[in-house]
Design brief:
Blueprint lengths: L2 H9 L7 H5 L2 H4 L12 E5 L5 H10 L3 E5 L7 H17 L3 E4 L4 E5 L16
Parallel strand pairs: 1-2
Antiparallel strand pairs: 2-4, 3-4
């Protein structure tokens, strides 16, 4: 179960959340990130070829968090494994973090941003 499904369960929503669908929704059409600059961004990127690794590393250097779609590369599991291993080495070297959210999504964080990976059950009030 992905992190977004867990959040939905905790928040009591039954509908599965599709981040890409939400990002492309009508509600997001009116959001202009350029008029309200932020220090850092969460950027959805797709891993489709080896040259994408440089783009991902560049975004992490800018302190952005990457929501990486690997569905295209999943068709080539050996290449995907090699590329993910390369990203793991990069984030470890830069004190970032990496975690698989589901079969198609990987979360990468820049330096000094860690992902809590233990799977504790939600606390009841």
């Amino acid at each position: 179960m992905g992190i977004f499904n867990k959040l939905g369960g905790v928040l009591g929503t039954q509908k599965e959340m599709n981040v890409e669908e939400w990002m492309n929704s009508e509600e997001m059409e009116n959001v202009d990130v350029m008029s309200e600059p932020a220090d850092f961004y969460v950027k959805p990127l797709a891993l489709q070829q080896e040259s994408d690794l440089a783009v991902i590393q560049s975004e992490l250097q800018k302190k952005n968090i990457i929501l990486l779609n690997v569905s295209e590369m999943a068709k080539r599991p050996n290449t995907l494994k090699t590329m993910i291993d390369s990203l793991k080495q990069y984030v470890e070297k830069t004190n970032g973090d990496i975690a698989r959210l589901d079969d198609e999504k990987i979360l990468l964080t820049p330096s000094k941003v860690k992902i809590i990976k233990n799977r504790r059950p939600a606390q009841k009030k």
